Each structure stands twice: as structure tokens, then as C-alpha cells.
Amino acid sequence: MYSHPSARASAAYRQVDLNSQVMSASPHQLIGLLFTELRTCLLVAKDAIERKDVTAKVRFISKAARLLDEGLISGLDMQAGGALAENLHKLYSYCLVRLTQANAQNDATAIDEVLNALQPVMDGWSEIGNQVHT
Fold this sequence. Notes:
Blueprint: H1 5-24, H2 27-51, H3 54-73, H4 78-105, H5 108-132
């Protein structure tokens, strides 16, 4: 697929910027970046479902699932985290199931459900960061 040189340059710049953010981020900020990217993927996937763009839907739901599984779930310390880590693991696992269903059934409401389920955790994480930096 052809993309205009300025679009490729812009994408490369965004990738460099993201790499810079990741390299200089604290562990707390890394999770915040995961949440930000996860939210973006979910919104783009929902839009793709509504536009009937199967390729984009699959790509962004798959990316969201990887962020949940390889980023958030794998980052949980189940021994030190106790009940909180266990509850987050259950929430993230449930979200993975719903994303699989959203993908298979072209169900934008399932993506809304995932966004709504994760929003309190994302808001809480952001608030923790605000308290640390003030």
C-alpha cells in the first residue's frame, strides 16, 4: 500500500517520540503509556467496526489484546500484589475475552464495555501519577 512520503515521515517521527518516552519513563509512566495506547487502540477498533473496516478492526483489537496480555497482565506481581493483583488479573482477563468476542462478532458494544471496565483503573492510575508529581 502506498503512503505519501510526508505520512511516512510523520509516522517515523511519532515512533521516535514514543521510543523516547518509553526509554525515559519511570515504571509508573510505562503503565500510563500502556493505558494510553490501549485506549487509543480500543477507540480505533470501535470506529473500524462501525466503518466495517475488517483489516483495521483486527489489527487494533489484536494490538489491544497484546497490550493487555503482554503488558498489563504480565506486569502484575501476583505474590506481592495480593488481592489487588488478583482482581486486576481477573479484570484484564475478562477484557481479553470480550475483545475476542468483539472481534469475532463485530461488536462495538463489547469494546465500549471494555473501555468502561478499564476506565476506573486508568483514572486511578493517572491520579496516582498526579499525586506523585505534586
